[in-house]
Specification:
Layout (H helix, E strand, L loop, with lengths): L1 H12 L4 H12 L8 H10 L4 H25 L1 H12 L2 H10 L2 H14 L4 H10 L4 H36 L1 H21 L1
Helix pairs in contact: 1-3, 2-4, 3-4, 3-9, 4-8, 4-9, 7-8, 7-9, 7-10
Keywords: Membrane, Transmembrane, Transmembrane helix
Protein name: DedA family protein
Organism: Tabrizicola oligotrophica
Length: 194
Amino acid sequence: MFRRLYDWTLRWAASRHAEKALGAVSFVESSVFPLPADVLFIPMVLARPERAFRLALIASVTSVLGGVFGWLIGHYAFDLIARPLLEFYGKTAAFDALKDATGTGTILLLLVTSGFSHLPPMKVVTILSGLVSFDLTLFILSAIVARGGRFYLLAWLLKRYGRPMAEFVERRFTLIAAVVLCAVAVIWGTLKYV
């Protein structure tokens, strides 16, 4: 299934509707779609490097809007969909304890790490943020920084270094994501405890 979705998104990258597809995938990736927008973004930037920052803008804006949609799902649809299931299984108290343990700092850290590295997946963090009623303004600002930072940095690297950079990132993506995650955790820990 994932391979078919991946192939489908790559076909869109070569389409004349590629920018619209990038916007759509970036939007739904932040709330429901299983593949990151990078599968469209990277081939599109490599094919048209002169459009790198335009594509970064499209991906950033639509990703943030998709994140807001995910926040709304978590905030407004939780009682309709998830709470009845929790009650049926007798897990409401356990879930409420988890929800109470999720503070602002944790959500901010999750937003930054998922925005930059997809760890944990952005859709999980956006829905959780709405579920715990995380401040929507702070949510939007952090999503702009994280998602915009990711897409603009990636656009700059791909425009400047092209295909060798894309191959390097693809081969070592897990390591790069782990380094970024560790750096963010160190910065967060330093800010929190110093």
